[in-house]
Amino acid sequence: MKYFVLDRGDETSLKLSDKFHKLAKQHNMILDEISPDIVISIGGDGTMLYAFHKFVQQLETISFVGIHTGHLGFYADWKPNEIEHLLELMAKKANSNDVIVEYPIVQIEIKTVNDTRIYYALNEITIKGIHATLVAQLDINDDKFEMFRGDGICISTPSGSTAYNKGLGGGIIHPSLAAIQIAEMASINNRVFRTLGSPIILPKHHHCDIYPKANQKILLSVDHLQFEHKDIISIRSSVSHKKVRFARYRTFPFWNRVKEAFVGIESN
């Protein structure tokens, strides 16, 4: 098995990364930064996002595993003191497809005056106005839906529905559902601008087109990455045909993650 490790860079993560390399060598695993079979993220969910974007063009052949060295993250199944057990399972199930789960991701296609660009996100994509409110027309499946004016728009994946989307009042969606969620950020509603005022969930094969006001300066965030544009013609968002693959070497149900993160464990 070929592997690669990305860590957060803090002292705890660096030490754990070094320990992982030593144990991996004992299990005859091969370090490969170019075309690994599996990528180990050591840190938090932010580290996993970085790993995802580093290998976003190789999603069909790479699986991810998260080891958290801080607070429990949605993409991290393992604690630092479980690393030996993790390596044993990885070596034992190196050629097993039974451990792989696939989650949907969001894709946006941006048309500018000069070109067309495609971005993918594991958590969410946000669109905001710079120095002014965002003004944009939203179409769903090529039909005009609403005229938006407000702080911005968040387009999230099911696995990312627990992140920024939740803070905006969006619903939590199980990652087994191929869908995207569109949530408003402080929309303005009056006689000119009218919005639905609640999140919209679009299934696979549906799309939402966003047409910002001409010459508007836009801040586009793709997970942790940020880009500024002033020449956007349209932004099409949809469920991507690509999926992200995680290696689950033990059962950790999604709703258990949600409970631990937001509800906690009830005391008797």
Could you explain the architecture of this structure?
The protein is of the alpha+beta class. The protein has five helices and 15 strands. It has a 15-stranded mixed beta sheet that branches. The mean pLDDT is 94.
Descriptive key words:
single chain; 268 residues; alpha+beta; 41% strand
Question: Got a strand count?
Answer: 15
What structural class do the secondary elements suggest? alpha+beta
Shape: elongated
Largest sheet: 15 strands, mixed
In a few lines, what is going on in this structure?
This protein is of the alpha+beta class and 268 residues long. 19% of the residues lie in helices and 41% in strands. It has helices at 11-26, 45-54, 83-92, 164-167, 254-263, and strands spanning 2-7, 30-31, 38-43, 63-68, 100-112, 116-121, 124-129, 134-140, 143-156, 179-187, 200-203, 207-212, 218-222, 225-229, 232-247.
Give the helices and strands, then pairings.
Layout: E1 2-7, H1 11-26, E2 30-31, E3 38-43, H2 45-54, E4 63-68, H3 83-92, E5 100-112, E6 116-121, E7 124-129, E8 134-140, E9 143-156, H4 164-167, E10 179-187, E11 200-203, E12 207-212, E13 218-222, E14 225-229, E15 232-247, H5 254-263
Parallel strand pairs: 1-2, 1-3, 3-4, 4-15
Antiparallel strand pairs: 5-6, 5-15, 7-9, 7-13, 8-9, 8-12, 9-10, 10-11, 12-15, 13-14
